[in-house]
Amino acid sequence: EVPAYRLARLPFLNAFLRDNEWAMHMHEQIRSRDGKHVHVLSRMIDGYQDLKNAQVVAEGSEMSFERMLESQSGIPTHILLRGAPVPLRGLIPLLAAARLLADIDVLGDSCANAGFVQRVDAHGRPYAQVVKVDPGYAFSFQASQNLLNITLSQPGHLPWMSRETKVLGDWKDI
After folding, report:
1. Residues 158, 143 contacting (CB under 8 angstroms)
2. Strands (DSSP E) found in 12-159
3. Which of 60, 85, 94, 165 has a 20 to 30 Å separation from 50 between CA atoms?
4. Angle (nearest 5°) at CA 83 between 77 and 84
5. pLDDT value for 144
6. Rounded CA gap, 120 and 127, in Å?
7. pTM over 0.90
């Protein structure tokens, strides 16, 4: 799930940023003729929580979503809602879409660039639906962090991907 987005040309400084030193400095650096700049606006989603707040059960113990990813125990398929595990839907499609769109920061450093909302299926069973927010690094095809860019520009840099895999186009490990 992705909230509706709109692009808008608005003044860089607003009531929330007028006293922010960084924002004022940026405003000085990127002046435009009319004082307006492109902003990304999105719809708020009721009940949204960052994935950084999600808890999972892995290897018999409760841990944070982020810790499970860091431990390389696999990709979470369930999260805990009110202490009970419920299916986490949409994470694999999100990761696949991020790969195709070259979003090098899909989950963010602390799993705050995506989140979830609680939903109920047609049978009344609860589940958690992944929601992508903050698409700021999509289309980073030339970024140094882009795995495809690294593979093409630095063969052998990624030890888990052999030259043969790259040549044959078998991207199953990415």
Report:
1. no
2. 36-42, 49-50, 55-58, 61-64, 78-81, 84-89, 114-120, 126-132
3. 60
4. 50
5. 62
6. 6
7. no
